[in-house]
Description:
It contains 22 helices and 34 strands. By secondary structure, it is of the alpha+beta class. The protein has four domains: 305 residues, Aminohydrolase, N-terminal nucleophile (Ntn) domain (Glutamine Phosphoribosylpyrophosphate, subunit 1, domain 1, 4-Layer Sandwich), CATH 3.60.20; 71 residues; 93 residues; 180 residues, no CATH class. Helix 8 runs parallel beside helix 9 and helix 14 crosses helix 16. The N and C termini lie far apart (81 Å).
Amino acid sequence: MTQREFTEKIVTSRKPLVPEGSTAQALRKGEAEGGCGVIGMASSEQIPAHHLLQALKQMRNRGNGKGGGIAAVGLAPEEFGVTRGVLENDYLLTIAYLDDRARPEVERDFVEPAFQLDHVRAVPHSDEAFEPRPPEVVQYFVRVKPEVAEAFRKSHGLDGGAGVEDEIVYQNSYRLNRAWYGATGEKRAFVVSHGKNMVVLKMVGYGDDVIRYYKLEDLHAHVWIGHHRYPTKGKVWHPGGAHPFVGLHEALVHNGDFANYASICEYLAQRNIHPLFLTDTEVSVLVFDLLHRTYGYPLEYVIESLAPTTERDFTLLPEDKKQIYRLLQSSHMHGSPDGPWFFLIAQSAQSKRAFRLIGITDTSMLRPQVFALQQGPVSIGLAASEKQAIDAALESLALEDPRFWTRADRYWNARGGSHTDGGAFIFTVQGDGNGPAGLVCTDKFGRPISVDTAQRPYRGSAPALGSSLAFPDVPAAELFLWIKEQLPSWDYEKLLAFLKGVEKDPYRGRAIEVLTLLMDLRYPTGAMRRSSLLSLFDSSLAAIVESIRQSPSEAYTIVSAEGPSPDPAGGAQTVVIDARGFAHQGERSLAREIVRLYQRGFRKLMVAHTQGHRFIANGLGAGTRGVRIDVYGSSGDYLASGIDGAEVFVHGDAQDQLAQIMKDGKLVVYGSVGQTFLYAGKGGEAFVLGSAAGRPLINAVGKPRVVINGTCLDYLAESFMAGDPLEGGGFVILNGITFNDQAEIIEMDTPYPGGTLFSLASGGAIYIRDPRFRVSEEQLNGGEFAALGERDWAVISPCLEENQRLFGIPLGRLLEVDGKVLSPEQVYRKIRPRAIAALQAEEAWTKMQV
């Protein structure tokens, strides 16, 4: 039987699931929109669920307690009381009982008739009180009875195979849910999950509540997903409406919302599929399951159907891709979720001995997402709503297992519908259960994402030398240059000995400064891996912070959540704030404490150990020149928003909504930034060593001046309204460069990959380093290329000189192309609004009237 014949018969077999004349779907209850907190991990070795806890705790502000859940794939059989054979071959049918009295009848009507039972397990739970009470959950390890499978085949004219048994399980769960839960009837029980080697648990609460309530802390799996639900649409007040939702062998969580729920329901109804839980997330996973299991599409085609490649990206695809993608879009476009959304999917591909974590983002990129990869003795891939959640999970793992460390080798954002990688990434754990598994990361097209394995990670086994390594007694900047020369020939033993000496340096200012330079700047590291070095530098900085706690001085004092706020000993004293223990937002938050310290007279603030804390440097008020705030760790959203004169230095990557409505001051980020950077910015300077995600500087006005050394995903400076840069207005410099593993500056394939650049802008300019003319007119929407003149260079060169001082990126190197130094107008291209001449005349007239 061909795949097409099988698909048609399976679709037809579902027709009786909804009795004729009954309602196939009901309208969803409207709820407020919002973002969710999601995190996923896929590891080559099974890891316990408690490593999700800190990440989920830090993202609680992305939920509201109306729905949380987890999914686990690639389980440990002994933890469920079964053999490996049972775990791999049986369906793990997990049923939530909202009414304990329903269990005998559910088992009589929907478990015993269809299945042979190999094991039954009641999921243990705590006595913690929740309202509503979480359901009692029972797990059944079942196989489809041979006679049931044979009757189904004969009834629907099907050949044999696992696909028949899969469909029996799927339809049996649908009938159970319709009878005992459904959209409009009394809700007494529902199937939480039914895939092989996969389990889902959820409740009204938060994702971390689920782990604690059902005592999952020590349950091991290769793939984990955790989710906090923020209200979108659907039955968010009931456990059946919480994420994840399942198809058959996959569980999906969703950050976002989409507007075409009704049309997707119609698309599914045409294929005899009718959702029961009244939420867009449910229909998303039903579409995924339809395309992958029923239609037999490979993952690439499933992802293309969910997030179609369009416009400029489509034109850049190879011809063979265009042909198949046209067919996919013509057949399935009306079943594609209309964003914004970000999906995380845990999949048990049991027949291929594989477990997957799949992240897919939509083409509008309005929901944040971050991917990460760490490859070592154990490899792990992660994806989340925020980078700080990934860092929290890695920190938890590293504290318990020295084979992990606190920094990923790679972090990146996805551009939905991209012709280069598809905006989707798949972490696949592959193994036969008889030996160590491996982890592979690929993009939508199957191309691998990896790191340089020639550079060794630190495994926690290299002891430091017996004594500290002596180093020159020189200022920090000179000491950094000395270390920079030594590092390529060092091993971890020498490095640890050096760091021991730094931690004991009586000049704390020098110790902090040299560690900061080592964290911030790029340089060759020889055989040592940069991510491991950063993890070790973090530990040394933590040791110095602890020494300040033990012995404050006239130069440094410290504040923690437990202690009182001190008065400054003098204008030069730096207050070190240990962020741990402060709330992430609210009255007892780190952000409020920073404001209090500023009001007490502190002007130099060093914020250590940030763990997703939001709103850092917000609320300081007007006229704050002379204030400097240095931020270490993994900070949260909205950092430096609204600053008016203060200087904020972020020693690493930053999150989303950075520097919104910034009026004056300076922001320096020694890494990359997230979504909507400098939204509605009004002024000041910002320098970013890495790249920006989607929508930086949209709706910016006034005179912000920004240097981004990498690129941004799309929608840069949309609706930019920053006047004329030659008359004091604002601009963005986009350099389109990055660093290789040897810290050499290299050009990106294109300085700007997106299809929308400077869209609808009415003022300001973009100066883009594009000597090879990779950016085209079709990427502009309301902008135009203009000649770069001497006045332009006079305006932007001081920013590039400051960029050199901050990041060590020589201005001369930026003007170098293929080893030859060119003139600025040969390297940089200016983009201005098309109507700029008329705009400037209008502005001049306005000024005359004033």
